[in-house]
Amino acid sequence: MLAIEKNKQDQSKLKRCKCLQEKIIESDSLNSLSEILNLLAVKARLEILMILSQNKHCVCDLMTHTGLAQTLISYHLDELKRADLICSCRDGKFIDYCLTKKGKRIIKFANSLKGELNV
What we know:
69% helix
């Protein structure tokens, strides 16, 4: 009996609150945003993005800048590439990585957030 009354109360709350009746943000947008934020939550990936925002670099350059192993750099580059934040192009025997337009927007956002937080 109590469960039925509670359910009725919950339904009446839904009727009063218009924001709960309409989807404010589509779940696909939330999923995309969540995926990007999860990528940026890893310090090494954020560092790689910041380095690539200055200039294109190959894996060996990124190893020098970050101090990370080649396998770890390659793993992070693959994750960033799948998220369409970076792209690669061959330059002789080297493969250079650079930011995509989406990656540049993410870095711009990260820098503005850094400024807002005084970090």
